[in-house]
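dumping this here so i dont lose it
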C-alpha cells in the first residue's frame, strides 16, 4: 500500500534535448533581409532570387522555428518567428498576385504604407520584449522596426530616400541577425563564449 501511494506521488521530469530555435529563426530573417535591403538600396534588382529567398528561407524557415518554439512552450519566440514567417509569405504574395493577374496592384501607396507601419508596430513590441533577452537581439529588432517605419514613410510620401536609407539599414539589421543566429551555434560547438551576444 505504501509503495502504491509513493508511485502516485512521484514526479517525472522530462529534459528538453531538442535544438534551439534561434539559429533557424534569425537566419530566416537575416538572409532574405540582407537581400531585400540591397534591393531597396538600389544595389541589386528585386527578382526571383529575392522572392525565392523570402518564401523559403524567410517564410518556411521562420514559421518552422515558430512551431519549434511553440513545442518548447516559448510564447515570445513562437509569436515572433511564426508572425515574421507569415510576413515573408505575405510579402511574396503581394509581389506575385499582380504579376499573376489575380490582383490589380498592392492596393496603392496608402495601403502599402499601412501594411509596413503595422509590421513596424509589431516589431517595436517585439523589441520591447527583447529588452529581457540580449543586446544582439535588441539591435536586430530595433533596427528592423526602424526599417519598417522608414519604408512606410517612403511609400506614403513617395520620397525615395526613405526607402534607400531603409535598405541600407536592413542590410545592417540582417547581418546582425545572421551574427545573432550563428553566435549560439559557435558557442555550443566550442563550449565557451567565442561570439558574445550581450
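and the seq i came up w/
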Amino acid at each position: 500500500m505504501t509503495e502504491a501511494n509513493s508511485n502516485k506521488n512521484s514526479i517525472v521530469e522530462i529534459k528538453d534535448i531538442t535544438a534551439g530555435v534561434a539559429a533557424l529563426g534569425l537566419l530566416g530573417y537575416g538572409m532574405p533581409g540582407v537581400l531585400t535591403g540591397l534591393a531597396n538600396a538600389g544595389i541589386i534588382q528585386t527578382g526571383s532570387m529575392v522572392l525565392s529567398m523570402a518564401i523559403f528561407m524567410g517564410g518556411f524557415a521562420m514559421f518552422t522555428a515558430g512551431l519549434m518554439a511553440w513545442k518548447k512552450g516559448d510564447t515570445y519566440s513562437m509569436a515572433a518567428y511564426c508572425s515574421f514567417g507569415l510576413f515573408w509569405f505575405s510579402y511574396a504574395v503581394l509581389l506575385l498576385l499582380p504579376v499573376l493577374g489575380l490582383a490589380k496592384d498592392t492596393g496603392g501607396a496608402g495601403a502599402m504604407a499601412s501594411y509596413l507601419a503595422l509590421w513596424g508596430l509589431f516589431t517595436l513590441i517585439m523589441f520591447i520584449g527583447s529588452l529581457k533577452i540580449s543586446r544582439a537581439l535588441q539591435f536586430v529588432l530595433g533596427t528592423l522596426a526602424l526599417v519598417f517605419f522608414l519604408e512606410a514613410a517612403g511609400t506614403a510620401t513617395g520620397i525615395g530616400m526613405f526607402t534607400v536609407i531603409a535598405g541600407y539599414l536592413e542590410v545592417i539589421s540582417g547581418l546582425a541577425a545572421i551574427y545573432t543566429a550563428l553566435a549560439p551555434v559557435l558557442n555550443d560547438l566550442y563550449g565557451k563564449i567565442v561570439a558574445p551576444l550581450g
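The radius of gyration is 20 Å.
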